[in-house]
Recover the amino acids of this structure.
DNA sequence: CGGATTTGACCGGCGC
DNA sequence: GCGCCGGTCAAATCCG
């Protein structure tokens, strides 16, 4: 049975409210995969048959045709349903709108238990009877289910849309994967959680379990259930701090997000709490996003019905590189979540999806300039948190400590030539 | 009953 | 060749 040789979670020390490890975990041996070898993509001869003109936004068909993938091989083409866009919503090119049940609360989607964010203290995923191919691999059709409320009661959420340039990157990656299995990109997250099975919005099938050498904690292997999707993930408890789970994703989802992802049905802000005091308010917009803002004002909450228009990676940039933990709050409309109680769920649900899309969205030429696509994310050490803006403005620098070396996302995306964080190259969606 | 999980067996790479 | 190890397979089992 599960955890035969695994210490019961109850025996683990409780996550500290203020956690100051002697050294951050990312200084330890973490499975990483570089994308240095992607540099050859700059070589024009690699793309002997460029595809950009073929690809329409959101239409994977030409891509698969270009790649010589048959219909049987290719994941279902994503054809999003668009409706009920809030009148004041600003949706840039890089996002699309899909239907979402209004009954969905912030990160709880009762109408779809398959993708509802689980309580990480125990696995609350509902093992539904839904065929796997209709979940993550149906191309985002978001077909109404019998247990969903009236179709009239739809709200909107936003999700990333793949642009032609992105498709080129995907194509390059796919061709890359066909050339060499060793160059499949990986993402690694370190997340504080008592649960070994982190909800990330995709649907996974467990296919293996191995004991880890010199560790009492087993390693579990999962495969994305979407047809034609070869993305895998490995989940293992972090030996040096068993309150954390290391999740490693291998490969890229080619089918977009699941039909009803556990992203919020309303736009929201994430605020990370800087330990060194408020940072300069670099946001020019009224969102007043600061590194140290804890709670949004009422007006901000009122605007929470707007669509998400931009997503930013942020890091806690205290000199120590250590977040004091537990201070993050999320405000979405009337809903507010405190990190200590709920943030684990939220963070685990969002970051893998968003960050994987970063991989897809960033121009290949930019990716070539950055260090390994490994992201270590947890709530205490460095917090690769996201700020989601509703006004469509560029806030590339807000909530960042430019040039700091706290091991956050900015380090991991650090420009190899300059040694400084150039997140804007990665995070600029518009 | 059917999908998901479990778990021992199996396979291939690697070092000696 | 042998043993170790990480990863995967697949029959058995679980479970809603």
């Amino acid at each position: 049975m599960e955890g035969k040789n695994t210490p019961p979670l109850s025996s683990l020390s409780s996550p500290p409210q203020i956690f100051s490890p002697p050294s951050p975990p990312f200084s330890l041996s973490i499975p990483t995969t570089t994308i240095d070898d992607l540099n050859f993509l700059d070589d024009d001869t690699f793309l002997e048959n460029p595809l950009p003109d073929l690809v329409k936004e959101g239409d994977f068909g030409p891509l698969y045709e270009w790649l010589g993938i048959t219909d049987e091989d290719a994941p279902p083409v994503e054809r999003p349903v668009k409706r009920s866009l809030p009148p004041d919503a600003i949706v840039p090119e890089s996002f699309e709108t899909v239907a979402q049940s209004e009954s969905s609360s912030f990160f709880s989607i009762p109408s779809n238990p398959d993708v509802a964010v689980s309580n990480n203290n125990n696995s609350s995923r509902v093992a539904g009877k839904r065929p796997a191919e209709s979940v993550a691999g149906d191309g985002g059709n978001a077909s109404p289910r019998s247990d969903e409320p009236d179709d009239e009661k739809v709200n909107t959420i936003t999700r990333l849309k793949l642009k032609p340039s992105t498709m080129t990157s995907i194509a390059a990656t796919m061709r890359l994967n066909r050339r060499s299995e060793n160059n499949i990109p990986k993402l690694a997250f370190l997340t504080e959680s008592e649960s070994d099975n982190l909800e990330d919005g995709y649907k996974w099938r467990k296919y293996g379990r191995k004991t880890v050498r010199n560790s009492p904690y087993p390693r579990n292997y999962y495969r994305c259930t979407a047809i034609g999707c070869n993305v895998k993930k490995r989940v293992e408890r972090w030996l040096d701090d068993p309150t954390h789970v290391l999740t490693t994703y291998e490969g890229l989802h080619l089918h977009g997000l699941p039909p009803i992802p556990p992203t919020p049905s309303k736009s929201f802000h994430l605020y990370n709490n800087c330990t060194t005091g408020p940072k300069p308010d670099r946001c020019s917009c009224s969102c007043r996003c600061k590194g140290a803002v804890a709670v949004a004002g009422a007006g901000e909450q009122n605007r929470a019905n707007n669509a998400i228009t931009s997503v930013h990676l942020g890091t806690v940039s205290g000199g120590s590189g250590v977040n004091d933990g537990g201070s993050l709050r999320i405000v979405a409309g009337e809903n507010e979540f405190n990190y200590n109680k709920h943030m684990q769920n939220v963070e685990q649900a969002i970051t893998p999806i968003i960050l994987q899309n970063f991989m897809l969205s960033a121009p290949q030429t930019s990716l070539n300039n950055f260090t390994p696509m490994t992201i270590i994310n947890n709530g205490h050490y460095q917090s690769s948190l996201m700020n989601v803006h509703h006004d469509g403005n560029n806030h590339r620098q807000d909530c960042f400590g430019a040039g700091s070396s706290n091991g956050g996302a900015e380090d991991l995306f650090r420009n190899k030539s300059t040694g400084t964080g150039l997140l804007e190259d990665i995070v600029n969606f518009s």
About this structure: Residues 126-129, 207-208, 210, 212-213, 219, 221, 234 of chain A lie near DNA strand C (CB under 10 Å from a C1'). Confidence is low (pLDDT under 50) at residues 1-182, 259-430 of chain A. Helices of chain A lie at 61-67, 164-179, 298-302, 339-361, 364-367, 409-412, 423-427.
